[in-house]
Design a protein that fits this description.
Number of helices: 8
Order of helices and strands: HHHHHHHH
Helix content: 55-70%
Structural class: mainly alpha
Low-confidence stretches: 7-17, 136-157
Strand content: under 5%
Number of strands: 0
Mean pLDDT: 77
Distance between the termini: 63 Å
Length: 164
């Protein structure tokens, strides 16, 4: 019976270490943006109430179809998409899924989330700053936001806490 040598663990081989891919700064920036967007969708009372009204049963997580419905209602109301386009919420559910999983969050997609949920200036600025990778050019990526006078104290404190 022939014995085979056991492979040595990578950590035991001095020349080799665990192989890790270098993190692409753009990918890392988008991931930080997605994390913040999910936090806002879950924890901002006004934003959460906006999508929760489209959920038939209470759940603990973010409901993608309800979020897609809010996005669709915004696009219909703004005239971006005709109300005759009844499959819009279903199409946007795929967009929401890709965005919230971190696979794809485009500039247009982030703008849609910010506008549809009428996010306040602080939250919007924090999202754009993360989306831009913190390169200091977030102002170039944003469109001037309207001020929301009905923003609550809870909303203001949430925006401050997520920017920290």
């Amino acid at each position: 019976m022939r014995q085979t040598a056991r492979p040595r663990p990578l950590a035991a081989v001095p020349a080799l270490g665990p192989r890790t891919k270098p993190v692409d700064p753009l990918v890392a920036a988008r991931q930080r943006t997605v994390e913040l967007l999910c936090t806002v969708l879950r924890e901002d009372p006004e934003v959460r109430a906006r999508w929760q009204q489209h959920v038939s049963s209470s759940g603990h997580g973010i409901h993608q179809a309800a979020i897609a419905t809010v996005l669709a209602e915004h696009q219909w109301a703004s005239g971006e998409v005709s109300r005759e386009c009844t499959e819009l919420p279903r199409r946007l559910k795929d967009t929401v899924s890709r965005a919230l999983s971190g696979r794809t969050l485009s500039r247009r997609g982030l703008r849609l989330f910010i506008d549809a949920f009428e996010m306040d200036r602080g939250t919007s600025a924090a999202l754009w700053e993360r989306w831009s990778g913190g390169r200091g050019d977030a102002s170039r990526a944003t469109v001037p936001q309207r001020t929301r006078p009905q923003a609550t104290q809870a909303r203001s404190s949430l925006a401050r806490s997520v920017m920290a």
